[in-house]
Structures are given as C-alpha cells and as structure tokens.
Design a protein that fits this description.
single chain; about 400 residues; mainly beta; Thrombin, subunit H; Pdz3 Domain; 2 domains; eight-stranded antiparallel β-sheet; seven-stranded antiparallel β-sheet; elongated
C-alpha cells in the first residue's frame, strides 16, 4: 500500500525556472505494507498516531550532545562543470554509506511495516533520514550494506516541519560515511543520481541518473488533513520509487547534495520521474542542532509523550457530514488499544479541544501541544463526545503504543 499525496509546486527563485504545471497526483515515497489499515506516515500531524507518533528512543548511549558540528565540503569542480554520471564509480563510493530502514507501526485498527532509506553520517552509526520514514514507528531496524542481519535503531531527534530525522544505529562502529557537499552551489542542469531502497526490497541500493531541473522549489505534500509545506527543495528528473525516502541525491563525484523526500507522478504510478530533495545544507543544520541537544519549536529531541490517537481536523462541514455536534478541534478517527487515550475513555469521533489549558483547534495544534511533554508527564485532556458533552481527564503520557 502506498501513501499518496498531491504535490503542488510553487515556483520560487531558480537558476532555470521550470514551466508552470497544474497540480498532479504525487506521493511521499515510503514503501508501505500493512496487515490492516495503514496510518499516514508522511504528514507531521496528519492521520497519524499523535504524540508525536511515538518515535522510539530507549536508554541507550548515543552520540547526541556532540559539540563538534558535522560539516559539508565544496562541490567538486567536475560536478559543478556538468560532468556526466559514472554509475559504477558513483555507486561504489556511495552505496556503502546507504542503509535500508525498516519500521513497524500500529494504528487504531491495525499494524503494518514500512521501508525507507538512510545516509550514514558518522562511523558510530548516526544516520540521516526523513521524518516521515520513522514517524509512527514502534520499532526501527537498519540493514547496513556488506553486513549480515539488521541492527536496532533509535531516534535522536526530528524536525517534522522540514521532514528531517537523525537516528542512531545501536551496536555498530567503523561504518563508512557519506560525503556531504555544499548544496548552495547546486544549479539546474547539474548531473545527479538518486540512490535508495526502491520498492523497499533491500539489498544493493537502486541507482537512477538524471539532472537537476530547478532549485529553491516550494512544494505542498497533501493527502492527509494537514498539508506539509517544504521549501528550498532541489527538483530533479532522476527516477525515484517508493522506499527511496531518505536516500541520497548525489552529484557526479558521489557527493551528497540532497535527501530524497517526495515524488510527483501522474496516475499514482509506482515510480516518479520528478522528485524533490531536501538540500544537504538544510538537513545538516537540523542534524547539528539535534547533536548539540538544542530543542526548539521545530526540532524535537528524543522521545515525546504519547497519547495514542489518530486524528484529523474538525470543521462544521465535517460535523454535518458525520451528524456530530459542531465544534473546532482535532477529530479522533481511531484510538490505539491500551493507550493513554483509550484509558481516558476517548473514542472515535471525540473532538479534542484542549491539552492542559492549551486550545486545540486542529490536528496540527494537537501535535504542537503534545510535543511539549515527555513520557510520564500528566496532561489534562479536554474533549467533546459525539453528542457534544464535554469531558476533561488527566492522563499520563507513555513512551509508545501498547502492542
């Protein structure tokens, strides 16, 4: 099953602005399979299990809180001057630092698995990937090229608004690392290749060459209740497929200039000849903020408290459609069994209106409110039941879904 999204491309400053096009069907590119209903994996606050979707973090020794920032290198002259892609040579340089990421997740009415890609940044296992690859995960496992089996991983920090995550592979050392290039010098016409776990099948990373179509693009990834707006993106025509999320977009010298995050294709095809990547400079700034232990309104460090609801925005129109009392808030469409929300008595079609006195007007504001709390914190949840009656209960947030 594939998470589908519509991408609206807003033209921004670009070396060679592409022709304007009408919105077309597109998708975020995490490969999904489900034993039952699949929750949304791409929106920071869409139809996912919020709070925030239980990024798994355990009490492990990690490399977070590092004072020395990771830095990018200048693009090589051959890459900037339009050198062609040597597929075999580039793959030999990049593949060892590309990992397959597999996650398990649970929703209000089922469970499933997802697959994506990651980029090794440090020899002791810090890996860059998309937020939507790990969001909602109850467990994360990583396969390292050239090594048998897989390793567990934990989330060090995420920026949902930028779709960036930093995870830590446990129990590894001496890993090969990717070379990150200064993305400010990327320009239209530059030869590139997209590398990743296409189809979520694992094994040798897929490889697709192309060129940069435009830079500094803004896109809206829709499909859930809360569209996700990403800016400053690199647009290329290298073919990408489900499972490539979090994989590197590299130049002709094998330097990483971006991280694949979204694809656009007509008729919801299984591959896209138009993809978007987060520039390395933007991703690296977030990574260094996480590594330094600096949380912010956008960057979430470690694990946040988990409520265990699946929500969407509530409106008067939706109230009429469902025959509910009109209100504004986050409409509960599913509750995870054994979660704090279930223990508090929240059910389907409840409308959450406040978290500890903070007004909840949408799915996004519910996510914002819950991001302020850690597992073990008690919060006051105020909601309306389907008849419109108000309830308020104190609940203790947990570390993740009860499976």
């Amino acid at each position: 099953m594939l998470e589908t999204h519509e991408l609206n491309v807003d033209q921004a400053a670009s070396a060679t602005p592409p022709e304007k096009r009408p919105p077309s069907l597109g998708w975020r590119i995490t490969a999904l399979s489900a034993a039952a209903a699949v929750i949304g994996m791409a929106g920071a606050y869409g139809l996912g299990v919020l709070g925030t979707s239980a990024y798994p973090v355990s009490a492990v020794t990690t490399s977070a809180n590092q004072t020395t920032p990771l830095v990018s290198q200048p693009q090589s002259d051959s890459a900037v001057s339009g050198g062609a892609i040597d597929a075999q040579g580039v793959a030999a340089k990049v593949d060892p630092a590309v990992v397959d990421i597999n996650t398990a997740f649970v929703s209000g009415n089922g469970s499933g698995q997802a697959a994506g890609t990651g980029i090794i940044l440090t020899s002791n296992g810090e890996v860059l990937t998309n937020n939507h690859v790990v969001e909602g995960a109850t467990s994360i496992s990583v396969h390292v090229q050239g090594r048998s089996g897989s390793y567990p991983a934990q989330v060090l920090g995420v920026d949902p608004t930028a779709d960036v995550a930093l995870i830590q592979i446990e129990g590894v050392s001496g890993l090969p690392t990717a070379t990150l290039a200064d993305s400010s010098t990327v320009s239209a016409g530059e030869a590139v290749a997209a590398i990743g776990n296409a189809g979520g099948v694992g094994g040798t990373p897929s490889f697709s060459s192309g060129t940069v179509v435009a830079v500094n693009q803004s896109i809206t990834a829709a499909g859930g209740s809360a569209p996700e707006h990403l800016t400053g993106m690199i647009e290329s025509n290298a073919t990408i497929a489900p499972g490539d999320s979090g994989g590197p977009l590299v130049n002709a010298s094998g330097q990483v200039i971006g991280m694949t995050t979204a694809g656009q294709a007509s008729y919801r095809s299984s591959a896209s000849a138009l993809g978007f990547a987060i520039p390395t400079n933007k991703a690296l700034a977030i990574v260094n903020q996480v590594r330094s232990g600096q949380a912010s309104s956008e960057v979430i460090l470690g694990q946040v408290g988990y409520l265990g609801v699946r929500v969407t925005d509530f409106s008067a129109a939706l109230a009429r459609q469902l025959g509910l009392a009109a209100s504004v808030g986050a409409l509960v469409t599913g509750v995870v069994n054994g979660s704090p929300a279930a223990a508090a008595g929240l059910g389907r079609y409840a409308v959450i209106t406040e978290i500890s006195g903070r007004t909840v007007s949408s799915a996004a504001t519910l996510g914002d409110a819950l991001h302020n709390y850690k597992p073990g914190d008690r919060v006051q949840v105020t909601w309306l039941d389907p008849s419109g009656a108000s309830h308020a209960t104190s609940v203790t947030l947990t570390a993740g879904p009860a499976i």
